[in-house]
Every structure is written in structure tokens, then in C-alpha cells.
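We read letters as residues; the fold follows as C-alpha cells. A sample entry reads:
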Amino acid sequence: MEILNKEKKEKSTKLIKFQLLRFARRRRILCKNGMYLAIDKNGVHGTKDPKNPYADLQVLSIGSDMLAFWGTKACLYLAVNAQTGQIYTTPDEGQHCVFLESITPDFYNFYESYRSVYDGQPQCLILNAQNKLIIADTGTIIEKNGQFIWELFDDAYEKYK
């Protein structure tokens, strides 16, 4: 009986993930410092190459101003450990994968860890000069390393011609 329940749970999890990905938006996330966010099997980093297959991300809408990032090639979510602030990748969905999106006065986006905001210590994503994605206090979003903008893929433009 336990094996059947486990199989049913796995099918349910796959179905939920499939349903969320159906409504995802395929994007590249460009940092104001010129680096693209890339998710691969070794973690998260920046790349200057817009054609890098690991920069192909799915942005999943979770709720109002809440989203998750799914690395299409790596099949992993971007996540943050709420206790340590460590950024990592995981195949499992959860609150650790949710980010709050806000917009700066010059129309760039910044992303705060969902858990950190509700724990009273808001922290945002920053792509530093060493091409590493880190989490830092929200006050640092003024820097260009914490500001992002979405880019559509070339094939997305073809749909609207």
C-alpha cells in the first residue's frame, strides 16, 4: 500500500510541475551589469553569452508578484536556504524556490527571497562581478548587480509578427 501511495504522490508532483510549466514564460534574465543568469547542474552563475543554453529559463508565476525560476536545460529550480542565505538549485518545488518581484524607478526588476521577506530580513538576488549569484540585504539593490530585465527569445518574437 505504501508503494502505491508513493507512486501516486510522484505522479501528482509531476502533474503539478507540468501544469505550472505550461503557463511559464521562456526568458533570459539579464542583469544590469551585462551578465545573464544561468542555471546548470553545478549551480547558478552569470554568463555573457546570450546563446548559452543554461541561460534559457522558464519564469513561473506563483501568485501576485511571486515567481520561480526553472532552468530549462538543467531541469532545476533556483532556490535559497532561508537559514544560511545559500543559493542553490533543486528539482523540488517549495517556498525556498519562490521570489518576490519588485520594480525599481527605472523599470528594472529585483527579486527578494520569499522566506527572507516574511522572516523580517528581506534579501535580494545579486549577480556579482565574479559571476556568482549571491543573496544580500535589500538595501544593496541600488547597485546595478541587483537589477535585472527580461529578454524574450528570438522565436518568441516570431509568434507576434
Q: What stands out?
A: The first strand starts at residue 25 and ends at 31. The mean pLDDT is 80.
